[in-house]
Design brief:
This protein is an alpha+beta fold. It has 4 helices and 7 strands. Bound molecules: coenzyme A (COA).
């Protein structure tokens, strides 16, 4: 398995996963903006197949994880944890002091992954996300690096 930079040639595979695993998926425009803005965007490849990806914004001394997704067929095999660890070590390498992220309050799988990797809740944004029935809170999480 390898972790490499995402390119435009990966967008079809990335969007297929994104639409499969998110109720409110990122669009093609969101991914091209991320690449154009120079966000750290990585794909996780096993035997030539993209099985997951992550996008992270590096600010002055703070990294913000904007997206991390694993193909449904490959979930619960430790790939999300490996990918998150790789993004944490990339952020450390770039001299970031902490990593922050926002997650839907209902996303128990992601919250469990973040907790298992050392993140703690640092805030709450009420009714932040659009949801199937109205709005949903965002939980802010962070981890010192
Ligand atoms: C969240 C996500 C990235 C986890 O990836 P994954 O490869 O399945 O996770 P891992 O197998 O590495 O699991 C690591 C730990 O996270 C937790 N976890 C992962 N999936 C879980 C689930 N469905 N329920 C409860 N805990 C879960 C567990 O603590 C797990 O450790 P364990 O398997 O030893 O119990 C994946 O479920 C996903 O892509 N979800 C849809 C996209 C998303 O919500 N992204 C995050 C918000 S941007």
């Amino acid at each position: 398995m390898i972790l490499r930079d995402m390119t435009e040639a990966d967008f079809d595979a990335v969007l297929r996963i994104e639409r499969e695993v998110h109720g409110h998926p990122w669009t093609l425009g969101n991914f091209s903006d991320a690449l154009r803005s120079g966000y750290a965007s990585k794909v996780f490849v096993i035997e030539g197949e993209i099985v997951g990806y992550a996008v992270m914004m590096l600010a002055v001394d703070e990294a913000e994880l904007l997206d991390i997704s694993i193909d449904k067929a490959h979930q619960r095999k430790g790939i999300g944890r490996k990918l998150l660890e790789a993004m944490l070590s990339l952020a450390r390498h770039e001299n970031m002091q902490r990593m922050v992220l926002e997650v839907r309050a209902s996303n128990q799988a992601a919250i469990a992954l973040y907790r298992a990797s050392g993140f703690e809740q640092i805030g709450l944004r009420r009714d932040y996300y659009p949801a199937a029935n109205g709005r949903e809170d965002a939980i802010l999480m962070g981890e010192g690096l």
